[in-house]
Amino acid sequence: MARILAITNQKGGVGKTTTAINLAASLAAAEVPTLLVDCDPQANASSGLGVPPEVERPNLYHGLRGEAAAETLLLPTAMEGLTLLPASRDLAGLNLELVHEPERERRLQALLAPLRPRFGFILLDCPPALDLLNLNALVAADALIVPLQCEYFALEGVAHLVRTLELVRAHWNPALEIAGVLFTQLDERTHLSRQVAAELRRHFGERVFATAIPRNVRLAEAPSHGLPALLYDLKSRGAEAYLQLAHEVIQREHPA
Amino acid sequence: MARILAITNQKGGVGKTTTAINLAASLAAAEVPTLLVDCDPQANASSGLGVPPEVERPNLYHGLRGEAAAETLLLPTAMEGLTLLPASRDLAGLNLELVHEPERERRLQALLAPLRPRFGFILLDCPPALDLLNLNALVAADALIVPLQCEYFALEGVAHLVRTLELVRAHWNPALEIAGVLFTQLDERTHLSRQVAAELRRHFGERVFATAIPRNVRLAEAPSHGLPALLYDLKSRGAEAYLQLAHEVIQREHPA
Ligand SMILES: Nc1ncnc2c1ncn2[C@@H]1O[C@H](COP(=O)(O)OP(=O)(O)OP(=O)(O)O)[C@@H](O)[C@H]1O
Ligand SMILES: Nc1ncnc2c1ncn2[C@@H]1O[C@H](COP(=O)(O)OP(=O)(O)OP(=O)(O)O)[C@@H](O)[C@H]1O
Ligand SMILES: [Mg+2]
Ligand SMILES: [Mg+2]
Fold first, then answer.
1. Sign (positive/negative) of CA torsion B141, B143, B147, B152?
2. pLDDT below 50 — which residues of chain B?
3. Could you tell me where the beta strands, DSSP code E, fall in A63-163?
4. Which of A31, A185, B87, B185 is deepest in the core (most CB within 10 A)?
5. Cβ–ligand 2 contact at B238 (below 6 Å)
6. What per-residue confidence (pLDDT) applies to B255?
C-alpha cells in the first residue's frame, strides 16, 4: 500500500511545488513507482511537468466531484515511474461547491484509495491556503512534508500549521504525523537564515531532514521546460539535493 | 477621498506583504497619510509592523462580521503617518461564515467607506488565494498593484489573475484597473529573470513600474524587528527601491 505524503505549508512561495515535482521524480529515479497529485488550482505541478493548464482534460476537479474514477485521470510524464494526476483552475470553485456535500473532507481520500496498491508513494502538492482542498489533502495523507524558507514569516506560520495539524488529527485523521521539515531556498551566507534555521531545529529537532535544498536557479528554470531538475540538469546542486532527499525519505518512510 | 490600492497576486510568496508594508511606510514618509489593511489570515503585515497575532484584539474579522466599526480597529505604527488595521487567524473562517450573507463581496468596501476622507491612500494586503477575502479586497479597491517574481510559475499565474480581474469588473467593480505591475526579488544576473521580465514587459507595457525591487536581505530581516525597511536600514537597496516606488505611485495615482 502506497505511503501518502502531503507537501504542505499555508505560507506562500516556500517551494511546495518545486519539492513535490523534484522529490516525486527522484523517488521514481530510485525505482519506487510514484504518483504526484496536483491539489492546487494554480496547477503549477501539472504545468511544471509539461501538462499545460489551458487544455481542457479530465482532472482532479472531476475526480473530487465524483464524475470520474482516479484511474481515468492519470497521465504519464517524461520521467519513467512517475505518474501525474493533474489539476485545473476549476478546483478553485470546489471550496464553495462542496460546502453542503456529506463527507466533503474525505473526497480525496476516497478517490485515491483504489490507487494505493499500484504505487510506493503518492505525493500531494497543496495550495497556499487552509481551505477545503488543503483539508482534503491532510485527511488523505499518512504524513506531511513541510517545506520552510528560513525567514521570519515562515516562523510565524509554524504555529498556524501545527494548530491545523492537531485539528485534523482530532476530527478526521488521528494517525497523521510530520514526516519531516525541509529547509528550502536556503542561503547559508545570510545571518537571518542561520538564525531562523537554528530556531526551527530547536523546535522540530529530529524531524528536520538532514538534506537542505540550496537556492539554485536550475530549479526555477526546469519547470519552463516541463521537466524535473534531474532531467533538465542532473549535475545541478538542486537536482542532487532532491535525489539525496529521496533517499532520506525512503529510509524514513519505508514505501510499499 | 483616499485612493484604495489592493496588493494582490494569488501566486504565493511573490512579495505582496513586503510590498504592502514598505510601500505604505514610504508613502507615509512622503507625508501622505496612509492606512494599511491586513486582509490575510496569516497576519504577516500585522506582525511585520510589530503587532503579534497571538494577542487577542479587535481586528478585521470583527469589522467584516459587522461587530465593530473600522474606526475602533485602527492602530498606530512605528512610522508616523502610517496606520494599521490588523488581521487575525480567525479571518480564515470567514470564507465559510459569510457564504449565505447578503452582499458578502462588499463587506470590506462598506467597512472602509467612512475612513476614506482621512487618508490619501489605503493599501490592502491580500492572501495568496482567489477566495472571498481576496474578492472583498478586489471589490473595495480602485486599482491593483500586482507584485510578480520574474520566474516561470509567475507567468503561468498572470492569465489566472487577469481573468479574475475581468470577472470582478463585470459583476461588482466596473472601474477596477491595474495601477501597475511590480517586479520583486529581481536578480538581474540570471538569464531566467531577464527572459521572464522581457515577456512580462511585452504583455503589460506601460503598466510595469519603472522601479523594480531587487532581492535584498534587509527586506527579509526588517519584519523580525517589527519595522518597515526604511526604519530598519534606510540606506539599504530594498528601502531605497520602495521609496522610489512610492514617488512613482504618487505621480500615477494622485492621492487625495
Ligand atoms: N531551491 C530553489 N532555488 C531557486 N528557486 C526556487 C527554489 N525552490 C523554489 N524556487 C522558485 O521559487 C518560486 C516559488 O517556489 P514554488 O512555486 O515551488 O513554491 P510554492 O510553495 O509551491 O508556491 P505556492 O505557495 O504559490 O504554491 C518558484 O518560482 C520556484 O521556481
Ligand atoms: N525583495 C526582497 N528581497 C529579499 N527577500 C524578500 C524580498 N521580498 C520579499 N522577501 C522575502 O520573501 C518571502 C516572501 O515574501 P512575502 O511574504 O512578502 O510574500 P507574499 O506574496 O506576501 O507571500 P504570501 O503569498 O504567503 O502572502 C518573505 O520571507 C520575505 O521576507
Ligand atoms: Mg505551489
Ligand atoms: Mg503575504
1. positive
2. none
3. 75-76, 82-85, 121-125, 143-149
4. B87
5. yes
6. 67
